[in-house]
Amino acid sequence: QALKALQEMSSAAPSTPPQPLSRKAKSIPVQTFEVKLDVTLGDLTKIGKSQKYTLSVDVEGGKLVVLKKQKDTQEDWNTFTHDKIRQLIKSQRVQNKLGIVFEK
After folding, report:
1. Under 8 Å CB-to-CB from 56, ≥6 apart: which residues?
2. Cα 36 to the chain's mean position, in Å?
3. CA–CA separation, 72 vs 74, rounded Å?
């Protein structure tokens, strides 16, 4: 009876292959953050005001893009691939401070 039921099910089933039961991997969207350059005391004389940057993180693409608006129409950006990033350091004293160590 089981064989007969399976044969009936297979003949009535559409010709598309069955979908695996595993969960589909969700894609991770690119995240964008407004950040400020951390200024050390030695650099205070060189920089008049804090410099704002846009940090875009593409986890799936393995890229980190740092974008700085220089003027209304000009932009300057650096792209770092995941293999150039050596270490991420979360500050224990300042909650929203992150250090990034790059190769070289």
Report:
1. 30, 31, 32, 33, 63, 64, 65, 67
2. 18
3. 6
pLDDT for the residue numbered 91: 87
For residue 23, pLDDT over 60 is answered with no
Q: Residue 76 — φ and ψ, nearest 5°?
A: -130, 130
User: Cα–Cα distance between 65 and 46 in angstroms, integer?
Assistant: 24
What SS3 state is found at 94?
coil
Residue 68: CA count within 13 A, CB half-sphere: 8
- Determine the longest span between alpha carbons in the chain, in angstroms: 87
**Is a pLDDT exceeding 70 seen at residue 24?**
no
Cβ-contact 62, 79 below 8 angstroms: no
Tell me the per-residue pLDDT of 45-102, one tens digit each, with 9 for 90 and over: 555 566 788 889 999 999 999 888 776 666 788 898 999 989 988 888 888 888 888 8
